[in-house]
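Handout for the seminar on molecular recognition.
Each group receives one record of this type.
Step one: identify the two inputs.
Step two: read the structure output and locate the region that could contact zinc ion.
Step three: write two sentences on what you found, then compare them with the reference statements printed after the record.
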Amino acid sequence: MIRLSEAHLDAIRTHGAATFPNECCGVLLGDVEGDHKTVREVRALANVFEPSAEFETSVLPAGAEPGEMAEVGQERRYFVSPQEMFALMQEERRTKRKILGFYHSHPNHPARPSAYDREWASPWYTYIIVSVMDGRPADLTAWQLDEDRKAFSAETWEILQSNEVDIEARRREER
Ligand SMILES: [Zn+2]
């Protein structure tokens, strides 16, 4: 279960609209208590995906023609640079905030995880997808990869009032 505020969701939607027709991506940072994740910050990351025929062949769904996928770019793919991931993990170690998951947009596609998304996902993290249709944010969904890595399940979420976010943050700092 993940808890986040309407402002966090708006930040994801706004980012998705801003990078349209390309995919946006970003990280969800916050606290973990048992199986409850609470988002404290939604942070935009750079999508550094570069089209690669070689790469597409390696992630190709069974039966697809390699040629079809050779020119797929940031309108269908996102990639966070290893340097940025490394910096986030260092930050995680330095601060109390944990990496809770990631978000990205699906320009002119439904907010459902793709085979590519499954390839890159890890269990436990929350993956938020916002569909952006003709430049306008539409459906927003949250997912978790099953332990056997075969499929995603919808993750339940709860909207926190923004003052609740602040009060909880203060309570934690006082501890
Ligand atoms: Zn995706």
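Reference statements: The radius of gyration is 17 Å. The beta strands are 2-5, 25-33, 36-45, 98-107, 126-133, 136-145, 152-154, 157-160.
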